Queue: 3 jobs
Job 1
Amino acid sequence: MTRAPNPKFQPVSALESPRFTGIPTFMRLPHFAHDTAGAEGVEIGLIGVPWDSGTTNRPGARHGPRQLRDMSTMIRSTHPVSRAKPFEAANCADLGDVPVNPTDTNSTLGRVERFFRAIHAQGITPLTAGGDHLISLPVLRALAAEGAVGMIHFDSHTDLNDTYFDGDKLTHGTPFRRAIEEGLLDPARVVQIGIRGSSYGDCDDVEWGRAQGVTIIQIEEYFDRGYRDVMAQARAIVGDGPTYVSYDIDYVDPAFAPGTGTPEIGGPNTFEAQQVIRELAGLNIIGADLVEVSPPFDQTGGTAWVGVSLMFELLCILSASCRG
C-alpha cells in the first residue's frame, strides 16, 4: 500500500507557477535548514557543497550547486520510464549549502563532515551536489562512521592517486585512496566504471586500487560488454550491504557535458549515463553525490542540465526505499 504524499514536501508545480519564477531550490522543493524544526520528517535531503579548492587545474565547480539548482526548475514530478514519483514516495527537501571555507581545505572538510554527521543522525539520506570530488571524502567520513561501506563510482578517473605537488594528499584526485586508507570504504565492495584518459607515470592509481581489491572497469571494457552486463557485475560486487554512489559528471563524454574541470573524450552519451543509474534499483544506497559540474566551462547551462537530470535519476532510486 502506497502512502499518501506529504503536502509539506511537495515541489512547486510549473502548472501553477512558471519555472522561471521564485527563488530556485533543487527541483523547486521546499527549503529547510537541517537543524531547524522545519526539517523534521525529511527523508531525503538535497544538499550543495559549493567548494573546489581540491581542484588541481581548472577551477569553477564551487559554482556548480547554484547552477544545478537553477537548471533543476526544468525537472517534473514523474519518471518517464519507471513512472516513479519520488516527491510522493519520500519526503524530500533542499537542505541548503554546507557553509564551506574557500581558503582552508581542512576547515572545509571538517565543516562538511559535521554537517553530514548531523543529517545522518537525523536519519536523512543525502543527495549531494558538488563541488569538486574531494567533497566525497568528508561525506563518507560521516556516513561510514559505523563501518566501511561499498561504493559504485562513475568517473573517467579513479581518484585513487596518492599525492600531488609537494606531497599534498587532499585533492580531487585522491579522495577514494584516503577513504580506503581510513577504513571508510571496503575495497572489495568498490566498483569504478568508465575509467579512461592519459595518466601520470605508470598508472599507479589503477595498479594500487586493483592491489587493494577495487574492481576498475575501464571504458574499453565497458563498451565491449555493454552497460547491462557491467552493472550486473557492479550489483553483485556491492551486494545488499550499505553502498554509496558517487557520480562525476566527467563520466559523460564532453560532447554532452563539457562544463567540467578535467574532461576526457571517449565516454558514454547521456542516454547511457541515465541507464547505469536505473540499474541501481533495489540496492542498499545510503547516499549519493553528483560532482564536478563547472559552470565557467559551459555557460549555456547544458552540463548542469545533464547533471541535475542525473540527480533526478538518483532521487528516483533513493526514494523507492522510502515507500510505505
Job 2
Amino acid sequence: MIFTTWSVEELLSFFMVLMRIGTLLVLLPIFGDKVVPPTVKVILSLTFSAVLFPILKANGVIHLEDAREWSQTTGRLLMTLATEVLVGLAVGFASQLVFHAIQIGGDFMAQFMGLSMASVYDPHMEGHTMVLGQMLSAFAILTFLSVDGHHLLFRAMVETFNLVPQGHLVINAAFKDSMTHMVGNTMLFGIQLSAPMAMCMLLVNIVYGIMGKALPQLNILTLSMASSVFIGGVVLLITYPSVQNGMSNLFQTYFEDMKQFMVVYGGK
C-alpha cells in the first residue's frame, strides 16, 4: 500500500497504530533497551506498523468508520491519541515486570553475599546497579530468547489490537487488581529467587556469631567478608539450574498473565 493513495481515515488509523506500537517498543524488553539507538526504534516502529496495519484492516480489527467518528472533533482525536499512548505504556510496563523480578532477586542475593558496594553503571537502567543483578539479567535475556520469547512479544503486540480496540480505554477496579497482581508476582519471584541464598547466609552468620563468642580474638569481620562471597558463589553455582528452570517457567506463565491483563484493560 502507498501512503499517497490512502484516505484520511486510513492515515489517521495508521497513525494511531504507529503511536501504540511506537510507545510499546520503547518499553519492550530487549527491543526497547536504552542501548538501542532511537533511530532503530523509529525504523522498527514504522516497519511493524506498515506490516500490521493492512493485516489488521483486512481482518476487521480496525474499522475506518471508527476513525471517521473520533476525527470529527479535535478533542476526540486527542483523546484517542492519548488512549493509544496509554495502552502502549501500560502493556510495555507490564512486559518489563518479569525482568525487574529477576533484577530484584539478583540485588537481594548480592546484599546477602556482602556485595552491596560492588556496583557499576548499568546503561540499561541508566544508573548504578549491583553486579550480580546485572549478571542474572543477562542470563534472563538469554533464557528469554531460548524459549522464543521474542516471537511471543510480537504475538502479544498484535494481540493488543484484538483485546484493546483503538480508542477504547477501561480503567476500573479489575484493571487495578490485575496490575497489583502482576507487581505482587514480581516481588514474590524476586524473593523466591533469593530465598536459598538468604537461608544459607543466615546459617553462615549464625556460625560467625557462635565463633565470635567462642573466640573473641578472631577477627570475624575480615573473615566473613571473604568467606561470604565464596560461599555465596558456591550456592549460586549449585542452585543456578533451578534458577534457570524458574526463569523458563516464569516466562511461560508471564504471557498468560499479560493476556489476562490486556483482556481487563480492554474491558472484555
Job 3
Amino acid sequence: MHEKESHLTWRYFTKFAGLEEEILQEENGLFEHYQFVADPGQEPMRIDKWLMHKIANASRTKIQAAIEVDFVLVNGKGVKSNYKIKAGDDVRIVLPEAPRDTEIYPENIPLDIVYEDASLLVVSKPAGMVVHPGFNNYTGTLVNALAYHFGNLPQKDASHRPGLVHRIDKDTSGLLVIAKTESALTHLAKQFYDHSIHRRYVALVWGEPDPESGTITGYLSRDPADRRRSKNFSDPEDGKMAITHYKTLEKYYFSALVECRLETGRTHQIRAQMASIGHPIFSDEMYGGKEIKKGSALPKFKQFIDNAFEMMPRQALHAAELGFIHPDTGQMVKFDAPLPDDFKNLLTKIRNYSGTDLKAK
C-alpha cells in the first residue's frame, strides 16, 4: 500500500462486490474479502482479466477500479492492471469494510401490496426504504421483507436480489413489480430489457419547464466529478441511451408539477435528466434541488422554502403508474399508487402559497 494512503479518508465509488453506493469511511485498516493462488500450470495472463473469471459479477471495469487504489495485492504488493499473473501468485482482494454475511435474513416488515397472484406481486414502496441490501443497508430492505412474507423467490443472478426485476431509489416512493416464479422473472426482465414497460412518475421540479412538455434524450453515466451521481452526456460513447418524456401538470411560478414517462430505465434517470435541463427535482440534494432555483429574494420566501424542505426532506419523486404484459395471461395490466402524504402535504402548501387551488393529479 502507498504510505500516504494509510490514514486517509476514503471516498470512492465501487461496484466491485455488487455494491452501487458511495463508500465514505475512515481508513483504519483493510479487510480481506477474497484470496486466490494461481495454479501451478497457470499461463501468463493480465490480472484484471484473470480476476474476471474468479469473482462472480465482477466486470473488468470494477476490477481495474479496485486495482487502481491498491485493493488488489499480489504477493502482498499492489500491482497495475497489466500485471501478468504467473503460477503460484498469491492474490488477495482487500477493502476498507469488513466482509459481510450475504445471506438474506427475513424481517417482518409490512408491505403495501397493490396486487398479487401466483406469479407476481406489485408493491408500493415507501420513501426511505432501500430496495435491496448493500453497503450500510444490510437490513430493513424490501428484499428482507419479501424473504419474510414469500420465502424463496427467484433471482436473475448471484447478486442476492430475489424477485427483483427493477428498483427505484431509496427516497423515491412508488410501484415495483416482484416476480414469484422463474417464468415470471424471465418474462418481466425481457420487457424491461425491451423498454416496453409503462412507467409514469410524478415529480415536483424547480421552475416551469419551457416548453411545457418534451423529450429529454441523452447518454447517462456516472458523473466523473461525483461518482454518486449520474450525468447526462450528448456523446453515445459516454454512456447508455436514456429517454424521458415529460409533461407539465401544474405551474406555481417558482416550481411545477410534472409527469415523467420513462422509455428507458437508467440509474437516477429522471433526477439527472430533469436537472440537465435546469429543472432539478425539489428537495433533491444530490442534483441541486435543495437550493432555491427560482422565486423571490425576500426572506419570507426563503423561510417558506426552508419549511417546505423540512416537510419533505427527500426528493419529490413518486412512481405513480406501472404497466406491463402479464406473464401468464398475455394481457396488459396497469397499476397506480396515490401520492404519499408527505408529497400531498407539500403540494397543498405550495398551492396555497401560489394561490393555485387544484386537486392532486
